[in-house]
Amino acid sequence: xxxxxxxxxxxxxxxxxxxxxxxxxxxxxxxxxxxxxxxxxxxxxxxxxxxxxxxxxxxxxxxxxxxxxxxxxxxxxxxxxxxxxxxxxxxxxxxxxxxxxxxxxxxxxxxxxxxxxxxxxxxxxxxxxxxxxxxxxxxxxxxxxxxxxxxxxxxxxxxxxxxxxxxxxxxxxxxxxxxxxxxxxxxxxxxxxxxxxxxxxxxxxxxxxxxxxxxxxxxxxxxxxxxxxxxxxxxxxxxxxxxxxxxxxxxxxxxxxxxxxxxxxxxxxxxxxxxxxxxxxxxxxxxxxxxxxxxxxxxxxxxxxxxxxxxxxxxxxxxxxxxxxxxxxxxxxxxxxxxxxxxxxxxxxxxxxxxxxxxxxxxxxxxxxxxxxxxxxxxxxxxxxxxxxxxxxxxxxxxxxxxxxxxxxxxxxxxxxxxxxxxxxxxxxxxxxx
Amino acid sequence: xxxxxxxxxxxxxxxxxxxxxxxxxxxxxxxxxxxxxxxxxxxxxxxxxxxxxxxxxxxxxxxxxxxxxxxxxxxxxxxxxxxxxxxxxxxxxxxxxxxxxxxxxxxxxxxxxxxxxxxxxxxxxxxxxxxxxxxxxxxxxxxxxxxxxxxxxxxxxxxxxxxxxxxxxxxxxxxxxxxxxxxxxxxxxxxxxxxxxxxxxxxxxxxxxxxxxxxxxxxxxxxxxxxxxxxxxxxxxxxxxxxxxxxxxxxxxxxxxxxxxxxxxxxxxxxxxxxxxxxxxxxxxxxxxxxxxxxxxxxxxxxxxxxxxxxxxxxxxxxxxxxxxxxxxxxxxxxxxxxxxxxxxxxxxxxxxxxxxxxxxxxxxxxxxxxxxxxxxxxxxxxxxxxxx
Lengths: 434, 389
Ligand code: SF4
Ligand code: SF4
Prior knowledge:
The complex is a heterodimer. By secondary structure, chain A is of the alpha/beta class. In chain A, helix 1 packs antiparallel against helix 12 and helix 5 packs across helix 6. In chain A, strand 3, helix 7 and strand 4 form a beta-alpha-beta unit. Chain A contains 19 helices and ten strands. In chain A, the strands form three sheets. Chain A has a four-stranded parallel sheet with strand order 2-1-3-4, sandwiched between helices. Chain A is globular, with a radius of gyration of 21 Å. In chain B, the strands form two sheets. A four-stranded parallel sheet of chain B has the order 2-1-3-4, with helices on both faces. Chain B is globular, with a radius of gyration of 20 Å. In chain B, helix 10 packs parallel to helix 14. In chain B, helix 13 links the parallel strand 7 and strand 8. Classes of the chains: A alpha/beta, B alpha/beta. At the A-B interface, helix 7, helix 8, helix 16 and helix 17 of A face helix 5, helix 6 and helix 13 of B. The complex binds iron/sulfur cluster (2 copies). The site of one iron/sulfur cluster (SF4) has 13 residues of chain B, from helix 5 and helix 13.
């Protein structure tokens, strides 16, 4: 089937192709390569040194989508990685052992530095400790980002992150890149980042419309691509979001639903919020299980994994390093459980969701531990139907179509029953539901 | 403790281990109205501070196979390790009724999010997640950690209105130094003569160290060192192993017994790593005892999966430990689904290969009831090493 593509999607594809092309040419260009993580990533900081980022998480998810992950995971398990641990790590290590061929079919360069931005997930530390052994003599820069245990960003934590940047991370980057750190250059990039962030917030907020012009989960994972990876802080990124916003505005004006692989979603029936990352190995089939039923996601926590802009944070040039620190600390998995619950509650209320779905990921304790409590808390507090499914990110052995389908059948039954009660009650209109 | 016999000592330790209702804790607390009890999760917390605030730090290590998990399973998916289930089960059954607060050290995402569950569940108790620095520069990680400890003192003091003086802190540091020294004496004694104190008894003893007041524990250790030193027994023909990877969720006693019965003296392990987190004394005469605690943490040489490796190569530390304990091999023994331990394993295995140290690997969960496979594996490991000697 011919998949429908909008011009923003084509633009994103071009941006990625150029990025991977640049990565494949570092031997000739001499540009240095940074491996780092998506949550609370320091994209502007990396490009201030004219270095190129590689995100092993993105490579892993791409391998999942290209059906390569199982082979990579088995390769890693063969050299001693347990079946129990995060499949992203194994997929990445397996890919490296098989020649480090990236999503575009080009070989990815080895890292010149590992930026261990230790934000919201403990596995990150273990992952890069492992990579450092596999790439001996590679510089490693640890940036420890404290957890928001008290449900807020403490000034002492901002200072700690800033101090690490100044005393440890910047000197290592200067050494590896051969460039002096230029705080004004960083500041300019942060201002550009804020412009893209404003646009992204508008795009996600459009989900409050009925029908929703976006799918904030399956479409959302594409929308966050540029901002959470290599492009935040540059003009191209802003252009991408302008283009995307124009497409979304058009759909709002025409009362069109989001684009699915099979065209516009017509007849929106269920509006859902989802907690947890998607499955990548069966991404299309997984999505289809929802759009076939007229279900659209109007909010998702996963699309906040790189950073959260919903409560007003924008990058700023006022105190660039503090801005980076606050960004890192604000990302979704670095928030306390009560904070995560209230963010989901906000999505549900603001975007008039009918139900909450939890996609619990076998690999990811960072997301998954505590999800059942969050789910029950929201169910009790808001009185909405909740659904629970289990998959994995990139290990297809943990994707069971029939299990997921059975659970979704019951979930949709609950949603239907709820709707029929409300439809039968003439006194309730859409406004009341809001 | 007075003049008690070895058998009496072991039986009191056993009773303590079996008591999931924390009767000892209740009695300790009842002695003074200002006394408070602070539970903590693995691995390390600065117990000196809790002690200096007039409180009892009590380690929470789950319940192993000793309680059925009825409600705990509704809190955690099947692919999450077992420890948080029994912790939640104990909490929901009211076993922590005498506890006034809970501390969760930053060792993994499960413990971190468990702290969130406790926050939601115990709104009227102190619940703190302690973010230990992963930067070891005194002016960076040191300053941050100092702030964490200051906040901890404020939080604890709010529970009983007592603020520890420098003197109190120094005294507490001294009594814990003594405790570590005694424990390390016992470790050294077992290095020479592991047959004098079985791995299971030594394990139970250390579990007692995470429940008893440090004063009671020190008295117990002193007694035991005397007893054990006097025992006259011949070692059996067993290999000597270091067990690593079991620093959080605890192996069932049956597993420890099985390893030893299968021909392996466990001459070192990380089951209760927090008790000997520091191998050196922390200065106990300083004008700035908190500073001394901070410095000790920054200079930590302990081998732990929860601390950034930086330039303290974990595999090398383990190899040194093997040498120091004159061990014949290493058993990687990690809880199922434990990311920190299991992701370290390949690194450590490579290091052991480099140093030509034999190793084997097994996984468990705290309520494992069948040990045939472990018996066979440990037995085969022991036979293989003997064959190579
Ligand atoms: S545990 Fe989760 S957040 Fe961490 S690396 Fe794996 S998938 Fe990513
Ligand atoms: S057993 Fe491992 S994963 Fe589970 S709580 Fe302990 S350290 Fe975390």
